[in-house]
Design a protein that fits this description.
The complex is a heterodimer. In chain A, about 20% of the residues lie in helices and about 30% in strands. Chain A has 6 helices and 16 strands. Chain B is built from 10 helices and 16 strands. The chains are: A alpha/beta, B alpha/beta. Bound molecules: flavin-adenine dinucleotide, flavin mononucleotide and FE2/S2 (inorganic) cluster.
Chain lengths: ~270, ~300
């Protein structure tokens, strides 16, 4: 049933000054109730409801996590919550990441690391080698670095200001990396213009890549049409949020514009 | 075999997308048509942009969904660009809403060149400021809105009515008097309410929302049946249609075409092709030559 499941926040992890991860108990019964990396939840705080990627999936302990960056009213309200408080979750929704091949490059920019972190856990557990680029503006905003290192993934940090790891944009780091390494596939999530840069690059190198897209969501049920993208009309909440490069090529608005709650276009 | 005509518009089959479902962009409307719909209808739009209600705007309940999206849309000027981008040859209806006969007439005249028909939403159960059901629950206002639009445009005008009235036939007859070329029945039912029992809070931000999906089908079917006996314009049936059997029931009840909304949540836009295939097979088995032979059979 697509109704919010009101759950207690079991644990809150402060990932950075602006990002918190909230952990919930989640029954893993082997059905569609079991989230896949790349899928998202609709999070209800009794005032508003917004999509959030699932950043942690622990099938053994039966826990899931969502990681929220404070950017506006809703996310501010969530940051004020404490362990033991409640939130409504419905989902999981959308099409997550697939694993193809045995050497994978994962690139996350900012809060875009959220679905990437759960993907890295998942891939490493299946014995697939993952190189991760965790990118942010500055050192204090780098996300999940220790957590991903523990899985055995090779984590490369990248900051705009050079306070940790490579100095520059994620796209520059990827370009450097692709000069001497090759990958069976890549996954990425982050600001759309960052993903656009990566899209052009992996296309040149013929690396099949999955991109996690964001669009304004209302129903997440595939009904309201709010999240549909030009020109194919696909619903980000059902056909996405993850798309392969060959599919993304058909999304003409990618890197150009997105629509707000009224449906008005906002150009990047 | 499935080809049919509605108010002079040729349709490859009698299925149409319901208003407000995947209807905010030309891209999604084109896709739904490619998936097999005989015609597509836009999300209802108004003169000014509208952000709609805050989330949650939808929640599933037994037998369907309740929604209070709040008629969000980017407004007439922006929507015109979407209308222009709908692929050539697709039978398309614009769904419009306003708070007065003048607003409706202004919207209708602004877009009549871009669409094949205009559907008047005088039936949304959760609209603000005198829109939606506030009009469709008043026979006199319904007449005035339909009439104002009918007098201003030359494309066929369809009145979409709400079931949430004491006497639906009275409203339908008034819509016909106003000049409606067809009637769509029904908009979402209710409004309904869903409460979260852990927090004792209504889930939708608006509290109430319109009910749609399989649970409302018997009511929708009754509305079609009742109105069919009272008017002599074609009826478009909508409400809980999820498979070809449902579509047959609506045709038998008196609908000349059917719209599909909530079923897309369960089956995706591919539902149009599935329903059409089932319907065609059914018609062959029952020796029907065309859709018209099926319309209103439950009345004879
Ligand atoms: C599939 C998906 C996964 C996401 N995963 C995460 C995540 O893991 N962590 C995270 O912090 N954020 C995530 N987001 C973004 C998040 O939903 C919103 O950006 C955020 O909730 C807006 O916060 P606000 O209301 O505080 O800020 P506001 O200032 O109100 O909004 C900031 C911006 O967020 C976007 N936004 C607002 N409401 C919505 C909505 N209903 N649907 C989509 N976008 C909206 C708009 O672009 C808006 O301009 C995800 C978005 C999508 C679509
Ligand atoms: C999410 C959603 C949005 C809707 N928006 C509109 C709308 O904008 N205009 C309108 O006339 N009807 C709207 N409706 C009502 C449908 O067009 C239809 O009349 C109703 O859902 C019953 O059909 P169904 O059971 O096949 O969904 C909406 C319904 C849903 C579920
Ligand atoms: S959010 Fe409603 S269709 Fe995707």
């Amino acid at each position: 049933m697509h109704a919010p499941n009101v759950l207690e926040i079991k644990k809150i992890i402060e990932e950075s000054e602006t990002v918190k991860t909230l952990i919930f108990d989640w029954k893993m019964d082997g059905t569609e109730n079991n989230p896949q990396p790349g899928q998202f939840m609709m999070v209800w705080n009794f005032e508003d409801e917004k999509p959030m990627s699932i950043s942690l999936i622990d099938p053994i302990e039966e826990k899931i996590g969502i990681s929220i960056k404070k950017v506006g009213d809703f996310t501010q309200q969530i940051h004020e919550l404490e362990e033991g408080d409640q939130l409504g979750l419905r989902g999981p929704y959308g099409r997550g990441f697939e694993i193809k091949g045995s050497k994978i490059l994962a690139i996350g920019g900012g809060i875009g690391m959220a679905p990437i972190a759960s993907f890295v856990d998942h891939a490493q557990k299946r014995g697939v080698h993952v190189d991760v680029i965790s990118a942010s503006m500055t050192k204090n905003e780098l996300l999940f670095v220790e957590r991903m290192k523990k899985t055995g993934a090779h984590v490369l940090t990248c900051t705009d200001d050079g306070t940790c790891g490579f100095q520059g944009f994620a796209t520059d780091r990827v370009e450097g990396l692709l000069k001497d390494s090759s990958y069976d596939m890549a996954v990425t999530c982050g600001p759309e213009l960052m993903m656009k840069g990566i899209f052009d690059m992996v296309d040149t190198h013929h690396i099949p890549t999955q991109f996690s897209m964001e669009r304004y969501m209302k129903c997440a049920l595939g009904l309201c049409g709010q999240c549909c993208v030009d020109n194919e009309g696909w619903r980000i909440c059902v056909e996405g949020p993850v798309f392969w490069s060959h599919e993304l090529k058909m999304i003409k608005e990618f890197g150009k514009y997105h629509r707000d709650a009224s449906g008005t276009r906002n150009y990047y | 075999m499935l080809e049919t005509e509605l108010c002079g518009i040729k349709l490859k089959n009698p299925t149409m997308l319901a208003a407000g479902i995947m209807g905010s962009t030309a891209s999604s409307l084109n896709w739904v048509y490619r998936c097999g719909a005989g015609a597509v209808i836009t999300k209802s739009f108004s003169i000014q942009p509208n952000f709609g209600y805050k989330n949650p705007t939808t929640v599933e309940v037994s037998g369907g969904v309740i929604n209070a999206i709040g008629l969000s849309n980017p407004g007439l000027e922006t929507f015109k660009k979407e209308l222009q981008s709908i692929d050539k040859g697709i039978p398309k209806l614009a769904s419009i809403y306003g708070a007065s006969p003048d607003e409706f007439a202004h919207l209708a005249t602004s877009i009549e060149d871009m669409v094949d028909m205009i559907e008047l939403n005088v039936s949304c159960p959760h609209a603000m400021g005198g829109c939606g059901a506030a009009i469709g629950q008043d026979p006199e206002l319904t007449y005035k809105v339909v009439n104002a639009v009918k007098k201003s445009v030359s494309v066929p005008v369809v009145a979409k009515l709400t079931p949430n009235v004491t006497d639906l036939t009275e409203i339908a007859v008034n819509a016909q008097k106003g000049g409606a070329d067809a009637i769509t029945l029904i908009n979402s039912l209710g409004p309904g309410l869903k409460i979260d029992i852990k927090t004792a809070k209504p889930i939708l931000s608006n509290g109430f929302g319109g009910m749609s999906g399989p649970a409302i089908k018997p009511v929708a079917l009754r509305c079609v049946f009742e109105v069919y006996a009272a008017v002599n314009v074609p009826i478009i049936g909508v409400g809980g249609i999820s498979n070809y059997q449902d579509a047959v029931e609506f045709l038998y009840s008196g609908a000349s075409a059917v719209q599909i909304g909530t079923a897309i949540m369960y089956n995706g836009p591919e539902i149009f092709a599935e329903i059409c295939q089932g319907l065609e097979k059914f018609m062959i088995e029952h020796k029907f030559q065309n859709i018209d032979e099926m319309v209103g059979l439950a009345h004879v």
